[in-house]
Amino acid sequence: MKNAAVGQHLLSGALSGFAGAILLQPLDLLKTRIQQGDSAVNARNTTIIWRTTKNILRNEGIKGLWTGTSATLIRNVPGVAFYFTSLTYLRSVMAKSPYFSAHQRHSRDSSKTVLPKLSSQGNLIAGATARVGVGLILNPFSILKARFESELHAYRSLSGSLLSITRMGPSELMCGFVASSLRDAPYAGLFVVIYESIKRETTYFIPTAYAAGIHSFSAASAGAIATIATHPFDVIKTKMQVRSEDRYRGFTTTVMRIFKQRGAAGFFDGASLRMSRKILSSAIGWAVFEGMLLFMQT
């Protein structure tokens, strides 16, 4: 990609990450608070969500639902910008290969997008690689985000908390990265494959639809499917990043602890909240990203 194109992708991605972080922080906060728990839960999921929401409102007020927003912005704005930019770069490179390039099936394919087109295998590899790469670089900020949202850590400032995590060494900075990768690689790979497929078919069957509507619908659908398939790893990651006890220091021990405490259902704690957030953030994020690129390039 040329320098101008890189700048456009970074800007579009950053705006996408900013919008999603501000609008959807309450869902992220509730998910983290529910997943951080350790005991068996017998109540229905909706009851747990409502109870957690009432506790936050009673103790912290309405602004409490946006606890950790600053940490989320630090993680998500550059994270989404780097992800979209690296994803497009990888797809541009891979599109030159006959193994991964895809020919337009429909003449209308190019009217709703300016992104490179790959085969399903190419999209799967590009999505997974870009997501895990960005996750590796920004893992310390993912830990910071999770702990600011959790009530188990009394961090007072972003700089102080990041310094505290750094002082604990490389193992703390990479805490939860394996679980994050096992969640993010299949999530991102599946997402891009499903998103591009739905977008292509929707463009063909409803050619008069607005581009933003197609992007939002395709992204929301892809987000829902990819989220439910990878949610157990999100629960494991959250436990490892916010709990300090020895029983949550390793991937295997964390899995065993969750299963012992909650059974298979424990791996789906907060699933409805994460799915709601992913559906909305995907719809907002990809509509903003592709919309901005269409606007700037056409």
TrEMBL record:
Alphabetic keyword roster: Membrane, Mitochondrion, Mitochondrion inner membrane, Repeat, Transmembrane, Transmembrane helix, Transport
Gene3D superfamilies given for it? Mitochondrial carrier domain
Tell whether Cell cycle is among the UniProt keywords.
no
Q: Where in the cell is it found?
A: Mitochondrion inner membrane; Mitochondrion membrane
Work out whether the entry's keyword set contains Iron. Answer: no
Provide the membrane topology annotation.
Multi-pass membrane protein
User: Which GO terms fall under molecular function for this chain's record?
Assistant: glycine transmembrane transporter activity
**Chain segments annotated as coiled-coil in the UniProt record:** none
Q: Name one GO cellular component term.
A: mitochondrial inner membrane
* Catalytic activity line of the entry: glycine(in) = glycine(out)
Any one biological process term the GO annotation gives: glycine import into mitochondrion
Solcar repeat residue intervals: 4-93, 118-201, 210-295
Which InterPro entries does the protein's record reference?
Answer: Hem25/SLC25A38 (IPR030847), MCP (IPR002067), MCP_dom_sf (IPR023395), MCP_transmembrane (IPR018108)
Q: According to its UniProt record, which protein family does this protein belong to?
A: Belongs to the mitochondrial carrier (TC 2.A.29) family. SLC25A38 subfamily.
Q: What does this protein do?
A: Mitochondrial glycine transporter that imports glycine into the mitochondrial matrix. Plays an important role in providing glycine for the first enzymatic step in heme biosynthesis, the condensation of glycine with succinyl-CoA to produce 5-aminolevulinate (ALA) in the miochondrial matrix.
The entry's protein name is Mitochondrial glycine transporter
Q: Organism source for this protein?
A: Suillus subaureus
